[in-house]
Design goal:
Layout: E1 2-5, H1 13-17, E2 24-28, H2 31-41, E3 50-52, H3 56-67, E4 74-83, E5 93-99, E6 102-103, H4 107-116, E7 121-128, H5 135-143, E8 146-150, H6 153-158, E9 165-173, H7 182-206, E10 210-216, H8 222-238, E11 242-245, H9 252-260, E12 263-266, E13 277-280, H10 287-296, E14 299-302, H11 306-320, E15 324-328, H12 334-340, E16 347-350, H13 353-357, E17 367-371, H14 377-390, H15 404-417, E18 422-426, H16 432-443, E19 448-451, H17 459-462, E20 467-472, H18 478-489, E21 494-500
Parallel strand pairs: 2-3, 2-4, 4-9, 5-7, 7-8, 10-20, 10-21, 11-12, 11-13, 13-14, 15-16, 15-17, 18-19, 18-20
Antiparallel strand pairs: 1-21, 4-8, 5-6, 5-9
Bound molecules: iron/sulfur cluster (SF4).
Residues 221-224, 282, 305, 307-308, 373-374, 403, 405-406, 433, 474 line the site of iron/sulfur cluster (SF4).
């Protein structure tokens, strides 16, 4: 599958003739704004020029007519503007998502970059009007979904004519600090503008035509889909709040979304009121937690992935047969804690070959090993190899413990990493299988970064990068992948192709409590 996401062009001569090596066109309407931006750029070795466009819609439209024939590579518009929302403060930065009729897809990346620089930045729609907005009009524009108003950006942005364009406006006045306070607000805005200026240069360096190689399969696995559906169904039936012990799956987007719908995530059962319903997360729990819930009279709905339950059953079986169980996994991970709890006197966590050398089983002839489901296939093979070498009679699981989703996603990302300059892995930092995807790329020599969403993409990563591999961990929603592609398309034309190494059709049934 190959799909190109081009920027729509009106056909201006400048746009047709532009190339990536053409310079950044950095625009500021007023002299005072241009001066603040130049000050912010003065420490750069080769600061881009700042072009003044003049005040108001008429001058902006005239300038836009001239600019459309210029051979620039990308356009950044910076200046001050009037905040429309009551929760904005003077000095806040608004990065335009829509500016008049122009869409600026790279806004989430810019917001992330500005925030990492310590600046208060938000993405939102910017309206261009031909007069200063007053109280009633502010409220009307805010109600229509605009975050900021200015008097120049829309006609200027239209002149980009398909080339990458971005708008950063610093708030000078707000509904609570109207034009009467514009002097102090204006100073705060100019300070923010100056601090934000270096981001313009990094944004321009990150612009360019790119290829995105999508790894397939990626994103949600059957165990994660099942766990999310369980919480959704309990919410539908019982209404909020629905208590969930630990994060249902390790992903900030999923957890945030369910929280907004009434799920309450708790670390321990003592945070759940007596008699309430509690959902156990996909990572599983130890028998002690189940006993605690029963003692408290809690109604339990178990979202443990069936493939984690399988490992628990194996641990019980080996322990009952008198084996010392070496559990290959990562200390502190919830899944590992749950599995260790099944047979705590017989199970020992081994993380490395050195741990295997230090292992002191009761009987060297009765050693078995199991694995955390989300390990790196290569790393786990090293540790199980060390176990086989030291204990030739060692027994392993009946079928692989590293689950199909982990194995498939690692194979898929390996296939794209080899042909990529950089790999982006959508997933949260506490997601074991997502972290393993980053390590898989690094093992083949391709730099990779774990990101929760487009705002985590750092502009410096992208400079000079023409092919980006893209995947998502088993707990990361497919929508995040779309969001990342969209944000990259704001930096230049993106052609997307998918490499599918295998297809998945596994589905798990729901527990009886939520089946109907
Ligand atoms: S990653 Fe594997 S073990 Fe974990 S929830 Fe998904 S299918 Fe289950």
């Amino acid at each position: 599958m190959t799909e190109t996401i081009p920027k729509p062009r009106e056909g201006g001569a400048g746009a047709d003739d532009a190339s990536e090596s053409d310079p950044l066109l950095l625009l500021a309407p007023l002299r005072i704004e241009a001066r603040a931006i130049r000050r912010g750029l003065r420490n750069l070795a080769e600061p881009p020029a700042v072009t003044r466009t003049g005040y108001g819609t008429t001058r902006a439209a005239q300038q836009a007519g001239r600019l459309s024939h210029d051979p620039f590579g990308q356009m950044m518009i910076m200046g001050v503007g009037g905040g429309l929302s009551t929760d904005l403060s003077p000095g806040d930065l608004v990065v335009g998502t829509e500016v008049g009729a122009v869409t600026c897809e790279s806004a989430p990346i810019l917001v992330g970059e500005l925030r990492r620089a310590g600046l208060p930045a938000r993405a939102g729609r910017i309206a261009t009007v031909d007069h200063l907005v007053r109280r009633a009009e502010r409220a009307k524009l805010a109600a229509e979904g605009w975050l900021l108003a200015d008097m120049e950006s829309a006609p200027l942005a239209a002149a980009a004519d398909g080339r990458p364009v971005a708008v950063i406006r610093a708030v000078s006045d707000t509904p609570h600090h109207p034009l009467a306070g514009i002097v102090s607000g204006g100073l705060a805005a100019l300070r923010s503008l100056r601090a934000a200026a270096p981001v313009a240069e990094r944004w321009a360096a990150a612009c360019g035509t790119r290829q995105v190689l999508l790894a397939g399969p990626r994103s949600f696995c059957a165990g994660v889909e099942r766990a999310i559906e369980i919480v959704e169904r309990v919410l539908e039936r019982q209404g909020e709040p629905v208590y969930v012990r630990k994060q249902i799956v390790h992903n900030t987007r999923v957890v945030g979304d369910l929280e907004s719908r009434g799920a309450v995530f708790v670390d321990e059962l003592d945070q759940v009121p007596d008699g309430a319903t509690v959902v156990f997360s996909a990572h599983g729990v130890s028998p002690m937690v189940r006993e605690d819930a029963a003692r408290r009279g809690l109604a339990v709905i178990d979202a443990t992935c069936p493939l984690v339950s399988k490992v628990h059953a194996e641990a019980r079986r080996f322990a009952a047969d008198g084996y010392t169980v070496a559990l290959i996994g990562h200390a502190g991970h919830e899944e590992v804690e749950g599995t260790l709890g099944e047979a705590p006197d017989s199970t020992v966590l081994v993380q490395t070959a050195a741990d295997v050398a230090a292992l002191r089983p009761r009987d060297g002839e009765r050693v078995a090993y199991l694995m955390q489901t989300t390990l790196s296939v290569d790393e786990a093979a090293e540790v199980s190899g060390a176990l086989r070498e030291r204990f030739p009679a060692v027994r392993g699981p009946g079928s692989d413990d590293i689950c199909y989703a982990t194995t498939n996603r690692q194979a898929a990302v390996r296939a794209v990493a080899a042909d990529s300059d950089l790999v982006l892995v959508a997933g949260s930092k506490n997601s074991s299988n997502s972290v393993r995807l980053v390590e898989t790329c690094e093992r083949v020599g391709t730099p990779a970064h774990l990101i929760d969403g487009a705002s985590d993409i750092q502009l410096d990563w992208l400079a000079g990068v023409s092919t980006i591999g893209l995947t998502a961990g088993a707990s990361a929603p497919p929508a995040v992948v779309e969001e990342i592609i969209s944000a990259l398309s704001g930096l230049g034309e993106v052609s997307v192709s998918e490499r599918v190494t295998t297809t998945e059709s596994i589905r798990f049934g729901l527990p009886k409590e939520v089946r109907q």
